[in-house]
Amino acid sequence: MSISVLIMTWNEEANLSACLESLSWSDDIVVLDSFSTDRTAEIARAAGARVIKRKYDSEDRQRMFGLTKIKFKYPWVYTPDADEVTPEDLRDEMLAIAADPTTPEAMFKARYKNMFLGKWIRYSSLYPTWITRMVRPDRVRFERQVHSVCVPDGPVGHLKSHFIHYSFNKGIEAWYDKHNRYSSVEARLAASRAVTKIDWADVFSTQPDARRRGLKSLSRRLPFRPTLRFFYMYVLRGGFLDGWPGYVYCRLISGYEFMIVLKTAELRRRERGLQI
User: Fold this and answer.
1) pLDDT digits (tens, 9 = 90+) for 40-88
2) How confident is the model at residue 185 (pLDDT cuts 50, 70, 90)?
3) What are phi and psi of 160, to 5 degrees?
4) How many CB atoms lie within 10 A of CB 54?
């Protein structure tokens, strides 16, 4: 049995060809496009993918539309981003899982190798980070508008193989544009105090994904958050071992945190009727 594929896109002509080429083993690929203005849809159709268009409102709603409103050929759906490449070992591992009718898991997470300036920035990117990538659509739901979280109805599995992430293929300007949008959503959540309380069990968890989630909730309440984020990534987690690419990447993430802090402060001042 094969696996269906769902890729969410918006202006991904720089990435989509490589992504689709690494997925040529699947005969059921769906590109859920947010009305791209470049050649994204054309590239997808040329590769044999189905193209369905929907106006983007939030990450969780877009993913849930894709998983609940689109009819797939197979029970398992692989959900890579357009800037990801799927190696053969990951393909083989997923196909073996899909071929086993006794598999109890509702979803599987995978680690990735984040590439920047031609190098895997292993330490700066806080490896290993586990991302949901293979799901049973009838047994999962996604929550949260940015960096959405998958909530399964059943056990969670972890794939041994990695996917390759090229998050800077569209350039630094595109990276800033995306994180400018992300920081606005994060700031609105923080300003509305919709963020949950600190889960200290997650902070000290031995599971990398749980610990990452806990540390993020803790960081929202710390002073000098951007500086501490840089120190944590570059010094404590060994980002300096990645050389110049690691330094630049840690600076970029620190800047992203600073955008969230500034926008949160701006929103709270507006709520109090104060001048910006």
Assistant:
1) 999 999 999 999 999 999 999 999 999 999 999 999 999 999 999 999 9
2) confident
3) -80, -30
4) 16
* Nearest CA among 74, 141, 72 for reference residue 107: 141
Cα three-residue angle 69-75-80, rounded to 5 degrees = 70
| pTM: predicted TM-score of the whole model, two decimal places | 0.87
Q: Could you tell me what percent of the chain has a pLDDT over 90? A: 79
Q: State the average pLDDT over residues 185-189.
A: 86
Per-residue confidence (pLDDT) for residue 216, from 0 to 100: 64
Which residues contact residue 127 at a Cβ distance below 8 angstroms, ignoring those fewer than 6 apart? 111, 113, 114
SS (H, E, C) the chain: CCCEEEEEECCCCCCHHHHHHCCCCCCCEEEEECCCCCCHHHHHHHCCCEEEECCCCCHHHHHHHHHHHCCCCCCCEECCCCCEECCHHHHHHHHHHHCCCCCCCCEEEEEEEEEECCEECCCCCCCCCEEEEEECHHHEEEECCCCCEEEECCCEEEEEEEEEECCCCCCHHHHHHHHHHHHHHHHHHHHCCCCCCCCHHHHCCCCHHHHHHHHHHHHCCCCCHHHHHHHHHHHHCCHHHHHHHHHHHHHHHHHHHHHHHHHHHHHHHHHCCCCC
pLDDT at 256 over 80: yes
